[in-house]
Amino acid sequence: MPEDKDISMDPIEPDDEIEIEFLDEEIESQEAEVKPEGLEAVPGTGVEEEAEQLKAELDHVRDIYLRKLAEFDNFRKRVEREREDIRLAGVEEIVRELLPVLDNFERALQHAEDDSGAFRQGVEMIARQLWDSLERRGVQEVNPVGKPFDPELHEAVQRVEDGQHPPGMVAWVMLKGYTMGDRLIRPAMVGVAVEPNGDSNGEGGSP
């Protein structure tokens, strides 16, 4: 048999040292890269100042937006009012041109009071259709007999001396007036009662 060879290893001397180097700086730098930034506003770093500046800018932009929104709303309302005024002005012009036609119908009916035939009935029907059309547009009649004279609604064309109406009252109406909503289309032409034996030379003027 072959002889066993004595395989021996050199013993590790106690004086031998194993050197292990810890790269502390490298590990710290890696940890710094992993740590997310901006989680906390550290005083003195400028983050708080920047946040305040952004908040002020946001408030300024919000104020401008609210102002522009209010201006636009006012502009929209003004345009709507102007559009409505233009529409009403157009309707008023048409109504004003139709009022003499209505006056002529009324005069024709007054002169045909004794006529009960088909002609009178036809005139009455046409006059009624015309008035119904105007009434649907908001036209109202101003017939102030027996009421106080109102220069906003009436135009005095004569002073009337009679004992039937107190002074300052409308004694008779020469031409009816008309309104549409709160607008005066045509003032009523009226005679206004005055004290008997008063000055009667004021025809065409106000009482």
Keywords:
207 residues, alpha+beta, Hemagglutinin Ectodomain, Chain B, Nucleotide Exchange Factor Grpe, Chain A, domain 2, 2 domains, three-stranded mixed β-sheet, 6 strands, disordered C terminus
Care to describe what's here?
The protein has 207 residues and is α+β, with helices and mostly antiparallel strands. It contains three helices and six strands; from the N terminus they run H-H-H-E-E-E-E-E-E. It folds into two domains: 47-137, Hemagglutinin Ectodomain, Chain B (Alpha-Beta Complex); 140-207, Nucleotide Exchange Factor Grpe, Chain A, domain 2. The chain is 46% helix and 16% strand. The protein has a three-stranded antiparallel beta sheet.
- What percentage of residues falls in helices of 4 or more residues? 40-55%
CATH domain class name of the largest domain: Alpha Beta
Strand content: 15-25%
Envelope shape:
elongated
- Average pLDDT score: 78
- Number of distinct beta strands: 6
Oligomeric state of shown chains: single chain
Distance from N terminus to C terminus (CA atoms, Å) equals 162 Å
The CATH architecture of the largest domain: Alpha-Beta Complex
Secondary-structure class? alpha+beta
Largest sheet: 3 strands, antiparallel
Query: Spans with pLDDT under 50 lasting ≥5 residues?
Result: 34-39, 198-206
Number of structurally distinct domains: 2
> Number of helical segments?
3
The SSE string, one letter per element, is HHHEEEEEE
Rg of Cα set:
50 Å
Strand order in the sheet with the most strands: 1-4-5
- CATH structural fold name of the largest domain: Hemagglutinin Ectodomain, Chain B
